[in-house]
Amino acid sequence: MTPKLAALYRRVDELRRLWRVSMCPIDPFLICDGLPDVTLREFPFASTNMNASLVACEDGGYLITLNSRRTLREQAFDCAHELMHYALHPRGGISDSECEWQADQGALELLIPRDVLLHRIDLCRPALTGSNRRRFLSAQANFFGVTEAVFRRRLEQVHSESRGLHW
Ligand SMILES: [Zn+2]
After folding, report:
1. Domain boundaries, given as residue ranges, for the chain
2. pLDDT tens track for 102-140
3. Alpha-carbon distances, residue 60 vs 3, 57, 96 (angstroms)
4. Is the overall model pTM greater than 0.90, yes or no?
5. Which residues of 73-106 are buried (b: 16+ CB within 10 A; e: fewer)?
6. Ligand 1 centroid distance, CA of 134 (Å)
7. In this structure, which residues have their CB less than 5 angstroms from ion ligand 1?
8. Which of 38, 39, 112, 166 is deepest in the core (most CB within 10 A)?
9. Per-residue model confidence (pLDDT) at position 130
């Protein structure tokens, strides 16, 4: 793991403690409910390319808008991504590619903590053959409350970080 990623994971760990979320599945909508300066709303965006937005309001609060055309699980990741911008990049700078990287990687670590994922891979490893592998992806995505696409992305990423990890 690169020092940059390790630093980001430490920061996400601090945020989990601050937001009092320790048990998976981690519910980003509930985190928003617990933040007095964050308002969450949904809106049918015209473009499906736009998933969500974070706006810093004049009153000092923040507005997270999710695209109501996306599924609840897609919205969960979108919401986690905007929460990362809120926590890591308050008041601007969110179009920068470094910030986007942090928001994406931070959201993955928030919803699918690396340690929890590694532990679950270990538990399931003996059964991970053939069609069970397909069921594993689906069951774990359900467990973490994310889409299979997000879970698969996370799995591949953790896999590439941890040389020697076979699943
Ligand atoms: Zn972003």
Report:
1. 3-161
2. 999 999 999 999 999 999 988 888 777 777 888 889 999
3. 33, 6, 22
4. yes
5. bbbbbbbbbbbbbbbbbeeeebeeeebeebbebb
6. 30
7. 100, 103
8. 112
9. 75
Instruction: Using the Cα atoms of residue 98, residue 102, residue 108 and residue 109 in order, give the sign of their dihedral.
Output: positive
- Asked whether 113 and 14 are in contact (CB, 8 A), the reply is no
CA of 16 from ligand 1 middle (Å) equals: 19
- State in Å: Cα 106 to ligand 1 middle: 11
Quick one: CA torsion of 70, 158, 155, 122, rounded to 10 degrees? -130
Q: In this model, does residue 141 exceed pLDDT 70?
A: yes
- Ligand 1 mean position, distance from CA 103 (Å): 6
Distances (CA, A) of 71 to 33, 37, 66, 84: 19, 25, 10, 20
